[in-house]
């Protein structure tokens, strides 16, 4: 039942959003080419914008993956935490400590800088 | 009818105005920023009225046409002390500043209610390049690339990156002269890789700055130091407004504008400085980038040079300034952050000088040369345009840093005509070269 | 049965989303007016008038957008906001989606928001929108961990990942007092997920509107609506996990929740007007080096507090 409600809500919102956009967008024809050029304060680009973009925070995204994996362990851990008591605390504390060292190391290596 | 009901409601919204600034148009922009009926927007896509404020030189008419055609229909144009472009004969021209706000609101309302048609398209509906190539998307050419899908080639110009030497695509485009984050009139060809500026080539210098008439008078005769210093403080407050707007602090920016408008020798900026320091404007928004070396600082002169530690100021040569205890204030680093500290320090100093001078009614003693807020104006030599320095300063900076650096630098030449005492009186003789 | 479990919760969520988005627009204007950024006309009518104007304006098209992604991104963002709000319990029994894993689902809403906002900027095929999109990813990947650690913190005393259980666990003391670091950190996440104010890296002024710089007309209305709705959804979650949700004396539960949501919205909108935008690089470093360790501290604090 919960998921059915969620599904209905999503569906209604999708329809409402389409209803806002669709009638006007559908009626109008494509604007002229000069209007469709990207806004650059009167200037023009040489090429389309899509390119092999230089993502400068790339090392940070790798660091994120390490943490995201950890999150998977943390969800079940959170549920049994009180039951397991101090033991669970120590284990996760060690885990976090190791990761914190990782952050400090990454910071020292300049991972969070645009490179 | 539902549509007309919708349009009547739409007519009541504050007017979204995209300002395309011509010569001395920024003075009007500051008036409009405080106008409750007008909302200034940063992209023509978000505008209902295109306002061209000030004359636009003929070589930038092509760019103005492009911006005009980028506003989605329906929209109106309004020309403030500027001649409408060919093809817009019915466009409204306004010269009296007091009428502008009402005209903007009326233009928006008329367009919404259908009393006035949308501004026509000026440029022919053609793709930027004839569409060539093979295949469904026109990509054609060699391998994956080579054609011009939708009239433009794909980005495939590989360059080694400035910072880490990776070879990836770069984007080259021309920015301005109506990009709101740049000084009015400035045009540059920019190459980016990712969001890092690889090359920056200024193609058109920003329009000359209009200074307050008191700086012109100071070169002819002794003038009241209080008046001169208040004009200086006001000038820096205006620059700060732009910097704050760019940093997303519009509410503080408007506070600064109001302060500039009602500036007296008793005004204080300590509170403003504390507020900016506390909200992280200097530390989290501005970065220690775009530092000037001595040579560059000397070329720009004025506050930018003093922010880099050069204690050059024509006011120290004036006996009456020295009597008031004037010594130039300086910062050391010469970077974006230091320039904003410097701007606030200079405002503070100017207000202090104005307070003392007003109490004793002191006048300047030197005539012929004057320290303008832009830099020293020695005998016959106005501060010259220094925007070419951006070509050296900006490569290697992230986009946001680069624009913040431009906002913190004051690079345009000083115009030979003073700014109208207020925008309240229309200029009688517009400068010949900018008559559109 | 159908009424209580399906129709009523659905209507509540949809109404809350619509009224909430309107309330955000009105509240933001009132705050702006109080800070000296006054606009003509009544604050109550202005958002409606603005919406009407956007409906009459024609929708812009770029040279070669990724059509599906460009038009769907605002809708998907709005949908994510609705999913978030559906998780919020209005009272012990009035919950649209009372999952045993509400916290996990909210986490996925935050993660998908990054994808959708990126898509909105990328699909326009315009240089400035593209920069805004990639900038936002840097922010989105930075705040998501803070959010997760803070939310795990509130799950510890509840011994459950269910929002109703989290609220029930606050019967004696709200989490905002029990875990003092939690709410401030979570508010930063809220600014991030709706890229509001100081964390508006996606649609910033230096990019002439960033991911929205090429968007006009009805799609822009949908985008603005979605942003406001996301703020509402976030404030609902924040009120639930930190301010005791529906708990409170005298007044009925849903009303308490609404009041608490308003308090959260007020804090977010004020921060949005009072703080300047962070530089992207500074922002990433701040999140990882300062705020993430703080969220560790918050988690350890929450753990010790739960055991005592």
From TrEMBL, chain A:
InterPro entries: NADH_UbQ/plastoQ_OxRdtase_su3, NDAH_ubi_oxred_su3_sf. It is a multi-pass membrane protein. The keyword Manganese does not apply. It is found in: Cell membrane; Membrane. It catalyses: a quinone + NADH + 5 H(+)(in) = a quinol + NAD(+) + 4 H(+)(out). GO terms for cellular component: NADH dehydrogenase complex; plasma membrane. NDH-1 shuttles electrons from NADH, via FMN and iron-sulfur (Fe-S) centers, to quinones in the respiratory chain. Belongs to the complex I subunit 3 family. This is NADH-quinone oxidoreductase subunit. It comes from Modicisalibacter muralis. The lineage of its organism: Bacteria, Pseudomonadati, Pseudomonadota, Gammaproteobacteria, Oceanospirillales.
TrEMBL record, chain B:
Transmembrane segments: none annotated. Residues 292-360 form the NADH-quinone oxidoreductase subunit D domain. It holds the Pfam family Complex1_49kDa. Residues 116-140, 362-384 are annotated as: Disordered. GO terms for molecular function: NAD binding; oxidoreductase activity, acting on NAD(P)H; quinone binding. Coiled coil: none annotated. This is Respiratory-chain NADH dehydrogenase, subunit.
UniProtKB/TrEMBL annotation, chain C:
One of its GO terms (molecular function) is NADH dehydrogenase activity. GO terms for biological process: aerobic respiration. It is a multi-pass membrane protein. The chain crosses the membrane at residues 6-27, 75-97, 103-122, 134-156, 176-197, 228-247, 253-271, 283-304. InterPro entries: NADH_UbQ_OxRdtase_su1/FPO. The keyword NAD applies. The keyword Ligase does not apply. It is found in: Cell membrane; Membrane. Its main location: membrane. GO terms for cellular component: plasma membrane. Keywords: Membrane, NAD, Transmembrane, Transmembrane helix. It holds the Pfam family NADHdh. Belongs to the complex I subunit 1 family. PANTHER family: NADH DEHYDROGENASE SUBUNIT 1, NADH-UBIQUINONE OXIDOREDUCTASE CHAIN 1. This is NADH dehydrogenase subunit H.
């Amino acid at each position: 039942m919960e998921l059915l409600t969620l599904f209905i809500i999503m569906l209604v919102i999708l329809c409402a959003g389409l209803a806002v956009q669709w009638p006007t967008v559908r009626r109008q024809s494509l604007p002229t080419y000069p209007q469709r050029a990207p806004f650059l304060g009167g200037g023009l680009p040489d090429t389309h914008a899509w390119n092999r973009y230089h993502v400068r925070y790339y090392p940070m995204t790798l660091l994120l993956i390490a943490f995201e994996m950890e999150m998977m362990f943390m969800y079940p851990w959170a549920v049994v935490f009180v039951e397991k008591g101090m033991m669970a605390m120590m284990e996760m504390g060690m885990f976090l400590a190791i990761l914190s060292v990782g952050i400090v190391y990454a910071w020292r290596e300049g991972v969070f800088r645009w490179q | 009818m539902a549509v007309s009901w919708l349009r009547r409601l739409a007519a009541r919204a504050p007017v979204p105005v995209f300002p395309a600034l011509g010569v001395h148009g920024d003075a009007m922009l500051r008036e409009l920023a405080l106008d409750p009926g007008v909302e200034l927007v940063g992209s023509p896509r978000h505008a209902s009225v295109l306002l061209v404020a000030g004359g636009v030189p003929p070589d930038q008419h092509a760019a103005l046409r492009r911006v005009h055609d980028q506003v989605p229909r329906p929209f109106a144009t309004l020309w403030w002390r500027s001649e409408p472009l060919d093809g817009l004969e019915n466009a409204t021209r306004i010269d009296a500043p007091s009428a502008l706000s009402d005209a903007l609101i009326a233009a928006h309302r008329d367009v919404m209610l259908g009393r006035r048609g949308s501004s026509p398209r000026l440029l022919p509906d053609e793709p930027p390049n004839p569409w060539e190539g093979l295949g469904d998307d026109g990509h054609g050419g060699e391998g994956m690339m080579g054609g011009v899908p939708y009239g433009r080639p794909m980005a495939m110009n590989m360059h080694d990156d400035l910072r880490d030497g990776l070879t990836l695509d770069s984007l080259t485009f021309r920015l301005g002269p109506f990009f709101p984050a740049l000084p009015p009139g400035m045009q540059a060809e920019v190459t980016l890789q990712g969001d890092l500026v690889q090359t920056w080539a200024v193609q058109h210098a920003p329009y000359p700055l209009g200074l307050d008439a008191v700086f012109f008078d100071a070169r002819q005769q002794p003038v009241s130091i209080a008046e001169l210093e208040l004009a200086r403080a006001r000038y820096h407050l205006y620059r700060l407004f732009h910097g704050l707007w760019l940093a997303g602090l519009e509410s503080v920016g408007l506070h600064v504008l109001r302060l500039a408008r009602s500036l007296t020798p008793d005004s204080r900026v300590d509170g403003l400085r504390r507020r900016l320091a506390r909200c992280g404007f200097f530390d989290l928004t501005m970065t220690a980038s775009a530092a000037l070396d001595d040579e560059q600082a000397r070329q720009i002169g004025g506050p930018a040079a003093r922010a880099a530690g050069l204690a050059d100021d024509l006011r120290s040569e004036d006996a009456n300034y020295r009597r008031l205890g004037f010594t130039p204030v300086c910062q050391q680093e010469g970077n974006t952050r230091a320039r904003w500290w410097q701007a606030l320090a200079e405002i503070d100093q100017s207000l202090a000088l104005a307070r003392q001078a007003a109490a004793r009614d002191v006048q300047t003693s030197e005539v012929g040369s004057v320290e303008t807020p832009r830099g020293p104006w020695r005998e016959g030599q106005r501060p010259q345009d220094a925007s070419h320095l951006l070509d050296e300063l900006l490569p290697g900076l992230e986009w946001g840093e680069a624009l913040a650096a431009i906002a913190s630098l004051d690079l345009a030449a000083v115009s030979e005509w003073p700014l109208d005492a207020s925008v309240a009186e229309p200029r009688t003789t517009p400068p010949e070269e900018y008559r559109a | 049965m159908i009424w209580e479990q399906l129709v009523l919760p659905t209507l509540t969520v949809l109404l809350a989303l619509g009224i909430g988005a309107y309330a955000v627009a009105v509240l933001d204007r009132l705050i702006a007016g109080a800070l000296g950024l006054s606009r003509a006309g009544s604050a109550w009518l202005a958002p409606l008038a603005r919406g009407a104007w956007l409906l009459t304006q024609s929708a812009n098209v770029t040279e070669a957008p990724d059509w599906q992604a460009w038009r769907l991104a605002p809708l998907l963002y709005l949908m994510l906001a609705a999913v978030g709000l559906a998780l919020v319990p209005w009272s012990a029994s009035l919950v649209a989606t009372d999952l045993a894993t509400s916290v996990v689902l909210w986490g996925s809403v935050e993660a998908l928001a990054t994808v959708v906002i990126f898509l909105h900027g990328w699909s326009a095929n315009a240089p400035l929108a593209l920069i805004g999109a990639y900038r936002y990813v840097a922010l989105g990947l930075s705040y998501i961990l803070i959010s997760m650690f803070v939310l795990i913190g509130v799950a510890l005393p509840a011994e459950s990942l269910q929002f109703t259980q989290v609220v029930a666990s606050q019967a004696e003391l709200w989490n905002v007092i029990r875990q003092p670091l939690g709410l401030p950190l979570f508010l930063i996440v809220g600014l991030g997920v709706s890229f509001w104010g100081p964390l508006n890296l996606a649609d910033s002024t230096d990019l002439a509107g960033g991911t929205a710089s090429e968007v006009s007309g009805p799609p822009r209305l949908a985008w603005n609506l979605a942003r406001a709705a996301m703020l509402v959804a976030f404030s609902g979650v924040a009120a639930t996990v930190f301010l005791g949700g529906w708990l409170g004396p005298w007044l009925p539960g849903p009303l308490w929740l609404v009041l608490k949501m308003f308090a959260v919205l007020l804090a977010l909108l004020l921060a949005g007007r009072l703080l300047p935008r962070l530089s992207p690089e500074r922002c990433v470093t701040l999140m990882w080096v300062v705020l993430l360790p703080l969220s560790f501290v918050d988690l350890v604090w929450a753990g010790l507090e739960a055991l005592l």
